[in-house]
Design brief:
Blueprint: E1 6-12, H1 14-18, E2 26-32, E3 35-40, E4 44-54, E5 60-71, E6 78-84, E7 89-94, E8 97-102, E9 114-116, E10 118-123, E11 135-141, E12 146-152, E13 157-164, E14 171-175, E15 178-182, E16 186-191, E17 197-202, E18 212-216, E19 219-224, E20 228-233, E21 243-244, E22 251-255, E23 258-262, E24 266-271, E25 277-282, E26 286-292, E27 295-300, E28 304-309, H2 312-321, H3 325-334, H4 341-361, H5 365-374, H6 379-383, H7 409-413, H8 417-434, H9 444-458, H10 462-468, H11 475-484, H12 488-497, H13 501-513, H14 524-533, H15 538-551, H16 553-556, H17 558-561, H18 565-569, H19 575-581, H20 586-599, H21 605-625, H22 631-646, H23 652-659, H24 665-674, H25 678-688, H26 692-702, H27 708-722, H28 730-742, H29 749-755, H30 766-805, E29 830-831, E30 837-838, H31 840-862
Antiparallel strand pairs: 1-28, 2-3, 3-4, 4-5, 6-7, 7-8, 8-9, 10-11, 11-12, 12-13, 14-15, 15-16, 16-17, 18-19, 19-20, 20-21, 22-23, 23-24, 24-25, 26-27, 27-28, 29-30
Helix pairs in contact: 2-3, 2-4, 3-4, 4-5, 8-9, 9-10, 9-11, 10-12, 11-12, 12-13, 14-15, 20-21, 21-22, 21-23, 22-24, 23-24, 24-25, 25-27, 26-27, 28-30
GO molecular function: SMAD binding; transforming growth factor beta receptor binding
Keywords: Cytoplasm, Protein transport, Transport
Protein name: Transforming growth factor beta receptor associated protein 1
Length: about 850
């Protein structure tokens, strides 16, 4: 696909060069800065000054001013011209001789320095000498298969190296020590310093004119077979794909990022970045194409023209206007080396953004998203395409010049609803991704408000997620939009996020009451209860507590029972006030008291008593309605019994008075048990309820955390009730037998044998007796074990006590007395502090002697 990369502008007209002399032809050209040199077939050199002019319309023209011309006097064509600006010298090849002339006056140097025997020559643009006051020249010598290297100074030349080639060279280019040579049948790379060569690819110079051109550091462009422009490095490899030329290319030039080629009829322009042909310019009779410091000059035999490159930015914009995004991006990346860094970054970001909108318009959303991200697009540019999404308070103004050609989404999609829906889905996804990144910095309100509007319009499930998380939705715009789309529950969330809980609750209550319709949540009532539970505004709680209780007492009471523990512990809402307010709602009141007593475990008599009374009243109310125990009655009875058994804080006599005259015998028994009136309790269980299992359970739970004697006393009481002499009920007898046989360990066997009737057989009580014997033996053995352990422990303590007194003293018949040196005949001895042992009589004699000695010495001292 074509792009206008260059414009052909005339530089030197035929009349300026040759007038009416048709026999004069241009043989070669050289350009250095504004200086243009032309060599002709009649041995003349012409010097022109080129002035570039730009019109107000941006059109570029060149004005050539002839400075002078010089006849070399050899009557031979001037074959080649090369300028050495550092030396102010022009190297002229004519008649196989390179002459040094002054660039300004075209006079030969006074020394007459020249290089003879040159077929063609080129300059080393990557010199190895390091001398700024000389240039390195490489020539193909008239000698067969010979290349020569020279150093050319201001007024002298010096040969450096002579290299022989395997075949006759036809063309050469130089980079450092490397020569790229077109031989008769192939291209090679030759290091003239080391002599190492590398074959590239075959080529027939007899069929086509070879082209060898240095295009960069250690890289060359070659005319390859099949009309290919081949790239090759000094290592003999190609780092770029070839470009497709015509078969008869006669010249090539480089103007990055383009390679320009000349054939008999056209100038073709190929991109080095993607190797595609970008432009074709008709140009007949051309035979010279060269580039000079970024300026591409082409010439016929009669005139000189300049290929003026259009600004890369304009080329890129033209590509974008043609929706050729990939080519535009490739060209933009390639332009990096020709544009200052800061300017390039600004330009490249804008190009990425433009490319993103082109892809977006083509519904290529993945590509568009990546381009928007890479180009750091102000996301409001995208939002502004969608009508009414930006908040009314937004100060955003679209980029100028515009990044795209669309007024809004309607124009872009041409009213196609399916395309519009896809575009909205993309924006939802994109905004959701960027809202938490640096892209959103500075305009989070615009992004979140737009996202909310999209979610609401599409009935998207993420609307609620947006509102319950951190967001920057503008209240005014968002509220109006949610109300428009009848998203009342979401509107309540918005109010709540902005601290307007009263407005939120008012909306939600209307939804539950059916005043407005919104099916977002089927459990909205439960949500309101939960909301009030954690609401810190007590006024709102009190305002709506009756509403929630009227809907459902057992659920509604959760606004009090499930409040945060910290708040309940601080008693921010007084429990007594709550109980008072719940008087009209008995089920809720019971639930709340259960919360205080059973969950929070508040040890206050009034709460425990109140809860027991409420249980009792509810049970009696239910019993008055139906004689059968329904599920609710059974559940309440179990709760009442559990409370009466486990709590010690309620007023026992008060509740017992309430129960009197009812059929709540089990509860009466529990209360008598709390009063330690166990006989009454057991009498009720045995004689009125006839629930023998309950009687046994009564003994067990009443003796929990009590000693064994208390437990035995309860079981003996129960046995006495069963064996009361005034009764002869067989059921009681069997209950007594079962009690003894099942709980043998709980009885004193001796006392039991005293009270059981003599008529009972041993076989009847065999389980009890076996258990009693087993228990007795077990008790005896456990006592013996405990005694043994105690004795062992006592022995250990005695041993420790002995150890604390000192180390043991061993006495045998082999030990002798330290005084008389005789062995010990009996286990009686005296031990001195130094460890020595003596007979008792020896110790006594020694003690007597020491006393006498002490007395004698004292008498003599007195004398």
């Amino acid at each position: 696909m074509s792009v206008k990369a260059f414009k052909l502008v005339s530089a030197v007209e035929r009349e300026m060069l040759m007038g009416d002399k048709n026999y004069i032809n241009i043989e070669c050209i050289e350009c250095c800065g504004r200086n243009l040199y032309i060599g002709t077939n009649d041995c003349f050199i012409y010097h022109f000054l080129l002035d570039e002019k730009i019109s107000t319309a941006g059109k570029i023209t060149f004005a050539a001013t002839k400075q002078l011309h010089k006849y070399l006097g050899l009557k031979k064509p001037v074959s080649e011209l090369k300028a050495a600006s550092a030396l102010t010298r022009l190297l002229v090849l004519c008649d196989n001789t390179i002459t040094l002339v002054n660039m300004m006056n075209l006079e030969p140097v006074p020394t007459g320095a020249r290089i003879k025997g040159a077929v063609t020559f080129t300059l080393n643009e990557n010199p190895v000498s390091g001398d700024p006051f000389c240039v390195e020249v490489c020539i193909i010598s008239v000698k067969r298969r010979t290349i020569q290297m020279f150093m050319v100074f201001e007024d002298r030349v010096q040969i450096v190296k002579e290299v022989f080639t395997p075949e006759q060279p036809c063309a050469v280019a130089v980079d450092g020590y490397y020569l790229c040579l077109a031989l008769t049948t192939q291209y090679i790379i030759l290091n003239y310093n080391t002599g190492v060569s590398q074959d590239l690819f075959p080529y027939c110079s007899d069929e086509k004119r070879p082209i060898v051109k240095r295009i960069g550091r250690q890289e060359f462009l070659l005319a390859g077979p099949g009309g290919l422009g081949m790239f090759a490095t000094v290592d003999g490899i190609s780092q770029r794909a070839p470009v497709h030329w015509s078969e008869n290319v006669i010249g090539a030039a480089l103007c990055f990022p383009y390679v320009v080629a000349l054939d008999d009829e056209f100038i073709t322009v190929h991109s080095m970045l993607d190797q595609q042909q970008k432009q074709t310019l008709p140009f007949k009779e051309g035979h010279i194409l060269q580039d000079f410091e970024g300026k591409v000059i082409v010439a016929t035999n009669k005139g000189v023209y300049i290929l003026v490159p259009l600004p890369l930015e304009k080329q890129i914009q033209d590509l974008l206007a043609s929706h050729r995004v990939e080519e535009a991006l490739v060209l933009a990346k390639g332009a990096r080396r020709n544009i200052p860094k800061e300017k390039f970054q600004v330009m490249y970001k804008r190009i990425l953004q433009q490319a993103g909108f082109i892809q977006f318009a083509q519904l290529q959303f993945l590509e568009a998203k990546e381009l928007f991200r890479s180009g750091q697009l102000d996301v409001r540019e995208l939002i502004s395409l969608y009508p009414f999404l930006l908040p009314t308070s937004s100060s955003f103004i679209r980029s100028h010049p515009p990044l795209h050609e669309y007024a809004d989404l309607n124009q872009l999609t041409q009213g196609d609803q399916e395309k519009m829906t896809k575009c909205k889905r993309f924006l939802m996804s994109y905004l959701n991704e960027v809202r938490s990144t640096e892209v959103a910095n500075g305009y989070k309100e615009d992004i979140d408000t737009a996202l909310l509007k999209l979610y609401a319009e599409a009935n998207h499930e993420s609307l609620l997620d947006l509102l319950v998380s951190e967001n920057f939705c503008l209240l005014t715009d968002s509220a109006a939009w949610l109300e428009k789309h009848k998203k009342y529950f979401a509107l309540g969330l918005l109010y709540h996020y902005n601290g307007q809980d009263a407005a939120a609750l008012q909306l939600w209550v209307k939804i539950v009451d059916g005043d407005i319709e919104d099916a977002t949540r089927s459990d909205l009532y439960e949500y309101i209860v939960d909301f009030l539970t954690f609401c810190s505004d007590q006024d709102l709680v009190w305002k709506y507590f009756e509403w929630v209780l009227q809907k459902n007492e057992e659920v509604g009471v959760q606004i009090f029972t499930k409040r945060p523990l910290e708040e309940q512990e601080k008693n921010n809402i007084n429990p007594d006030d709550i109980i008072s307010c719940l008087n009209k709602y008995p089920k809720a009141r019971i639930k709340y008291l259960e919360h205080l007593v059973l969950e929070r475990k508040i040890e206050k008599e009034k709460y425990h008593t109140h809860l027991a009374i409420l249980y009792l009243e509810a049970i009696l109310q239910l019993k008055s309605v139906t004689t059968d125990n329904c599920t609710e009655t059974t559940e309440l009875l179990l709760k009442l019994r559990s409370l009466l058994q486990k709590s010690d804080l309620y007023r026992i006599h008060f509740i017992l008075d309430k129960i009197q005259g009812t059929d709540l015998h089990m509860e009466s028994a529990i209360l008598y048990g709390k009063l330690e009136e166990h006989e009454k309790a057991l009498h009720i269980l045995v004689h009125e309820l006839k629930d023998y299992h309950a009687a046994e359970e009564y003994c067990i739970w009443n003796s929990e955390n009590r000693d064994m004697q208390y437990r035995q006393r309860l079981f003996h009481m129960l046995l006495s009730v069963y064996l009361n002499p005034g009764t002869s009920d067989c059921a009681l007898v069997m209950a007594a037998v079962d009690l003894l046989n099942n709980h043998a360990a709980e009885f004193d066997a001796g006392l039991v044998l005293q009270v059981v009737p003599d008529s009972w057989s041993v076989q009847l009580l065999s389980p009890f007796l076996a258990g009693a014997v087993r228990q007795s033996i077990h008790t005896k053995r456990m006592t013996q074990a405990a005694l043994g352990l105690a004795q062992a422990e006592n022995l250990i303590y005695k041993h420790e006590k002995v150890k604390q007194r000192g180390t043991p003293i061993l006495l045998s018949d082999k030990k002798v007395c330290q005084v008389c040196q005789n062995p010990f005949c009996e286990p009686v001895f005296v031990r001195y502090p130094n460890g020595g042992m003596v007979h008792t009589h020896c110790a006594a004699n020694r003690h007597l002697n020491s006393n006498m000695t002490h007395h004698s010495s004292s008498s003599s001292n007195q004398t």
